[in-house]
Amino acid sequence: MDGIWRFLPPERAAHYARFVREYETVRLAEGRQSDDPAYYRALPFRDLSGRMAAMWRERARTFTLLLAKVAEPLAAERKRPLRILDLGAGNGWLAYQLAKRGHEAAAVDLTVNNFDGLGAHAMYDVPFLPIQAEFTRLPLTDGQADLVVFNASFHYAESYEAALAEARRVTRAGGRIVIADSPVYRDPENGRRMVREREAAFQARYGFPSNALDSENFLEYGRLEELAQTIEVERTLYWPAPYWRRAIRYAKTRLRRQRKPAQFPLIVFHK
């Protein structure tokens, strides 16, 4: 046994098969694998491979903000370690870092490979629970989690409403639901342009556009407000990057007449 709890029925596995196959192809090509446990244990603060260093710096900023603004205050309020779901966990780095800090963490993902999926849980020296499941069918009872984190994964959901409703179901009263590292645009047309550009780039490099799922692929601020109203929760935004850095990035795109870039706020829903 590989230690992974599997809750993905065969018909749902078939539904996701193309997505998983293409996703793993891209991740391997990007060099997201290592035989060294130290590589996985250092994430997100250090990329020992050096291949994705800039991306991991962004993840580290988000994780630090998640601790400071959400996890640590909520644990202090509850006077105990938290039960946390890491949704779209990939290799489990977030669940591991939270478990290291004494929380009870579960990593949920579709992929179970040993290099970038749930199978990588064997690389860590602090245990967490790896679960293969989809966002809209979590194998948990109502109100079981204190904190649910969509870890750079919410934009893959085929139904934002269904994914958030399921997250709300498994979150106990007073808990938090967080969307981390998903792209947000003020103008949805910029998001649509991003999707077209990405699909063209993937088609040229890999021979497929990587659009196997009927996902929205990004968020926009009006849509966020709609989602908060749909699941009847309040929301708060926190920013990993300071305003001046975001302003400079916008100015550069205007000068170069490029599409306006996405923003990546930490989106927190309060149940």
Structure characterization notes:
The protein is of the alpha/beta class and about 270 residues long. It has a single domain (about 5-270), classed as Vaccinia Virus protein VP39 (Rossmann fold, 3-Layer(aba) Sandwich), CATH 3.40.50. Helix content is about 40%, strand content about 20%. It has an eight-stranded mixed sheet, sandwiched between helices. β7 (about 185), α6 (about 190-205) and β8 form a beta-alpha-beta unit. It starts with a strand and ends with a strand. The mean pLDDT is about 95.
Features:
single chain; 271 residues; alpha/beta; Rossmann fold; 8-stranded mixed β-sheet; two-stranded parallel ribbon; 8 helices
